[in-house]
Structures are given as structure tokens and as C-alpha cells.
Design a protein that fits this description.
Largest sheet: none
Helix content: 55-70%
Radius of gyration: 17 Å
CATH superfamily: SRP54, nucleotide-binding domain
Number of strands: 0
Oligomer: single chain
Strand content: under 5%
Structural class: mainly alpha
Number of domains: 1
Low-confidence stretches: none
CATH class: Mainly Alpha
Order of helices and strands: HHHH
Distance between the termini: 14 Å
CATH topology: Four Helix Bundle (Hemerythrin (Met), subunit A)
């Protein structure tokens, strides 16, 4: 599942990095592909809708950094929003009692 999602997102980003200048249409097309990739990976519709909306709001109103191309700027925004969504803090497992401990994976 993650390989498929990763491949699809990489495909979207390759299309964006090849462009020297991005238009509103390019951004919309890329976000549509990102939305479809996330939905196919069984991400909840409301989460995808909120994520794409946040990315669009940041991408449209933000100036492109001099060190980045417009395509790289979009990739940076998507990365930051996905990190924010997933949580940027790491949490370890806390076990109670004596070992061995059982972990159920679904």
C-alpha cells in the first residue's frame, strides 16, 4: 500500500519539478492527483479534503523561495502538511508489567 502511494506521489512531484513556472491549473491538477492517491490508499475522505485544502491555501498565497523552484516549493508544502497531519513528535511504546508483551497488528 505504501509503495503504491509513494510511487503515485513521486509521479506527481516529477511532473511539477520539470516546470520552471507553475500556474493555478498546474497546482489544481497536482492536488487532484494527490487527492486520488490518498483516497486509493484508504485515507479518510474528510482528512484528504482538509489536507488538500490546506496545501492549496498555502501554495496559492506563498512566495516562492529563491533557493527553490516552484515545483520544489509545492513538494515542500506537501511534505510539511503531511508531517503536520501525521504528527511531528515521536512517541515510544510504553509497556506495563513484566515481559513478554503482546502487540496486535491489524
Amino acid at each position: 500500500m505504501f509503495e503504491s502511494l509513494s510511487d503515485k506521489l513521486n509521479g506527481v512531484f516529477k511532473k511539477l519539478t520539470g516546470r520552471g513556472r507553475l500556474t493555478e491549473k498546474n497546482i489544481q491538477d497536482a492536488l487532484k492527483e494527490v487527492r486520488l492517491a490518498l483516497l486509493e490508499a484508504d485515507v479518510h475522505y474528510k482528512v484528504v479534503k482538509e489536507l488538500v485544502s490546506d496545501i492549496r491555501n498555502r501554495a496559492v498565497g506563498q512566495e516562492v523561495l529563491e533557493s527553490l523552484t516552484p515545483g520544489q516549493q509545492i513538494i515542500k508544502i506537501v511534505n510539511e502538511e503531511l508531517t503536520r497531519l501525521m504528527g511531528d513528535a515521536q512517541h515510544g511504546l510504553e509497556f506495563e508489567g513484566a515481559p513478554p508483551h503482546l502487540i496486535m497488528l491489524v
